[in-house]
Amino acid sequence: MDLSSLTDLALSALVAAQSGATAAITDVATKLGKAGVEKVCALVKDRFAKDGEGATKALATLENNPTDAVAQKAVRRRLEGLLDEDRDFAADIKAVIGTVSIDKSQHQTATAGDNSTVIQIQGSGKTVG
């Protein structure tokens, strides 16, 4: 699992736990389960506490307003840095998350003036037949 996906999953677990908004992150929360979400949160909180006051403040801001995009971005940056620097921390998060994946594909459908459907496909190696 790459660093970006690991960060996304850990952040999703944090937001789900703090906001109770598992509907927004149903895929991750369902696959991890309540115990998995709580374990990821505990690991992140412990690691952020070791990182210092700036990290704990960023996490507290996210906990107080889990839907705030700025707070999520701040925690994401710090979390990604810690996962990159601390291989043991990354391994602990990976052990809990396992092989959970997030669908990051983009799908768009539009209708042209003559009611014909216009579909945009993004990625490499795609064939339309």
UniProtKB/TrEMBL annotation:
This is Uncharacterized protein.
